[in-house]
Specification:
- The chain is mainly alpha-helical.
- It is built from 7 helices and no strands.
- The radius of gyration is 21 Å and the shape is globular.
- The chain starts with 73 loop residues before the first helix and ends with a helix.
Length: 296
């Protein structure tokens, strides 16, 4: 089973060769999985045959792999995530200040924001399919994503309500903290069933939003109404819940990468995946609060 974030489905952050795959025993030449694990250096992963069996019956945590130099640590993940999110925040603030959304500049600002969003999407796709993490590519994605978020946030603050952006930021932080606490307390357990449910729900959600967008583009208005009114509130809540579920999946992948000795450069992929999820939650939170403020 692969991660929810496509960046985690690359080397090591895959459960296809055992949970997380790191330090799994190298198969014999010519075997069915020969050569699939580039980091095999330690004894076999005891949960390769059943990646969802609890490693620790008391806490449900995976066993720690023998320490080795150059292995990813939680400090590495925190540092890279702070750098990536810091880039998003910095460029968002700059775009808010330098790209006003008043009547004289709104067309230009929106054009730049849409262009930045497209560039960020392309960079994200390129990094997702690369075999190795590229810090320059990840930070470039964060910079362009920040430009888009800054303009959109400025527009919401200007035309809907002044405090919505701050509320969306606080709401995103609250979701992150809540899921992290629930995950660390083992109130959330990432199992095959949990993964399957989240992925199926996410695919359905994205397909519905794409259909709604097509109807909006060719039919005008809000398409099928999934992003406004009562349905907009419902789908906003669903989007935030899905984002919270993706956070749990991300935490599990990071935990497994650390436990099984992922190389340090993989921490950039962890930061990238967490940033993608947090951007998703922020946008859904911003949309939901905008609808609620607009109905007042």
């Amino acid at each position: 089973m692969r991660s929810s974030n496509p960046v985690f489905s690359r080397r090591g952050f895959s459960r296809d060769n055992g949970y997380a795959g790191f330090h799994a025993q190298q198969p014999q030449a010519g075997g069915p999985a020969a050569g699939t694990n580039p980091y095999a250096q330690a004894p076999a992963n005891p949960y390769a045959s059943n990646p969802y069996a609890p490693a620790d019956t008391q806490h449900g945590a995976p066993p720690q792999a023998p320490a080795r130099s150059g292995a990813m640590t939680i400090d590495d993940v925190v540092t890279r995530t702070a750098m990536t999110l810091g880039t998003v925040v910095l460029t968002a603030i700059l775009s808010w200040v330098l790209l006003p959304v008043d009547e004289a500049n709104i067309g230009k600002s929106y054009g730049i924001a849409i262009g930045a969003a497209l560039v960020a999407m392309v960079l994200a796709l390129v990094q997702s399919f690369k075999r190795k993490a590229s810090p320059a590519l990840i930070l470039s994605y964060a910079a362009f994503e920040g430009v888009f978020l800054g303009v959109i946030s400025s527009a919401v603050s200007t035309y809907i309500a002044d405090g919505v952006v701050a509320q969306a930021v606080l709401g995103t932080m609250a979701v992150f903290a809540g899921v992290l606490i629930a995950y660390k307390m083992r109130w959330i357990r990432v199992t095959r069933r949990f993964y399957g449910f989240v992925m199926a729900a996410a695919m359905g959600f994205v397909l519905l939003m794409m259909v709604n967008l097509l109807f909006a583009v060719f039919g005008g208005g809000d398409g099928l109404g999934f992003r406004s009114g009562g349905l907009g509130i419902l789908f906003g809540v669903i989007g935030i819940v899905l984002g919270a579920c993706f956070l749990a999946l991300d935490f599990k992948q990071v935990e497994d990468g650390i436990a099984y000795g992922a190389p340090r450069e993989e921490s950039w992929l962890a930061a990238f995946g967490l940033t993608l999820t947090l951007v998703w939650i922020y946008l859904e939170m911003l949309r939901l609060l905008s609808i609620l403020q607009g109905d007042d």
